[in-house]
Amino acid sequence: MSRPQEPHRPFFPFGNPFRMISPKGSYLSPKLLALLNAFEETLAGRIKNLKPAGREDVLRLSWMRCAMETLCEIHTDIKTLITALELPVCDWDDKWIDVYFDNSVKLLDICIAFSSEISRLKQGHLFLQCVLHNLGDASSKQFVRARSSLDGWRQHMASKNPRLDSCFCVMDGLAQTLDLPKIKNSAKGKVLMRAMYGVKVVTLLVCSIFAAAFSGSAKKLTDLQVPETHLWAAAFADLQSFVNTEIRSMYTSGKVTVLTELEAVDTGVKKLYPVVQDGMDPVEAEVLQNSTSDLGKSADKLSQGLDLLAKEVDKFFQIVLNGRDALLCNLRVGGNASDQVRANKNIGSPRVR
């Protein structure tokens, strides 16, 4: 979706983007407009880079890892903006702080749910390893064990993760806080709240995509409408439409899972199961060897992809947690929020498991 060409205007091609969120006659200095413009242009670029190259790339684990990397970058961008605004916490309105803490704890809960589901999927790899190990010796006894492990994998994949259900409620709560707080007497506050709106919208979209991928349902996909006054609105609408349309199409076609690497493993299991179900004739030796090899390759890709994705989810968790720590520390001791962001950049905390 391309934006119609318009004559060049300073800072914003759509006129004053604050017309809908600030009283008539309110003033933002050129410096603040430049800061906001730079933030939104960067956000637009990150969203454009996140769009999958083709339909086959939607919900590959490699794309999901890139999506989580993008969230890490965007949340780091908002910290950089806070630093540039030089907005002391003592000047923050209580409602800004309340919204920030409320949203951040919701994001931490979502990260925990995603980490839990990734761990559950990784546990399924143990069954596949047992299958491959047992088929190394083509005896009837080993075939029985291989079938048992295949059944165990199927049952494990069919099980439900209760943390995902709670994640849906958290996401609903996050969506209800998208509206911008009313800002009256703080030009810097207007810039901050508008930038945070962009961060929240993109974060919610990515989280809804992850939830759809992990849950086996497209019901929780979001379809957010963003005002065109935002420089990143067209890129966001393009990404949302493309990814959501493809995911819904996948589920409509009857796919059990829309995760590309997991689907490949499921296909390999279905192909291998009949071969080991009733034993093996000599003529089927090559079929068994090929099926086992294919399953081993797809299982390795799934395991490696999950490991990399887990690291990015943990990294995002740390970024959100460090932001909370920075603000909490600042509220206790007073001072400048940007200083605390820098001071708490490398704060560590337990990894989510």
Task: Explain the overall architecture.
It is a single-pass membrane protein. Belongs to the ROH1 family. Its main location: membrane. The chain has 353 residues and is mainly alpha-helical. The protein has one domain. It contains 10 helices and no strands. Helix 3 runs antiparallel to helix 4 and helix 8 runs antiparallel to helix 9. The protein is elongated and about 80 Å long.
**How many runs of DSSP E, i.e. beta strands?**
0
- Rounded to an integer in angstroms, the radius of gyration calculated over CA atoms is 24 Å
Helix content: 55-70%
Supply the number of structural domains.
1
Mean pLDDT: 82
Instruction: Show unreliable segments.
Output: 1-26, 335-353
Q: Which percent band covers the strand fraction?
A: under 5%
Molecular shape = elongated
Write a concise synopsis of the structure shown.
By secondary structure, this protein is an all-alpha fold.
Secondary structure: elements and pairs:
Elements: H1 30-50, H2 61-85, H3 94-134, H4 140-158, H5 162-175, H6 187-215, H7 233-252, H8 260-277, H9 285-333, H10 337-343
Helix pairs in contact: 1-2, 1-6, 1-7, 2-6, 2-9, 2-10, 3-4, 3-5, 3-6, 3-9, 4-8, 5-6, 6-7, 8-9, 9-10
Using brief descriptors, characterize the structure shown:
single chain, 353 residues, mainly alpha, 10 helices
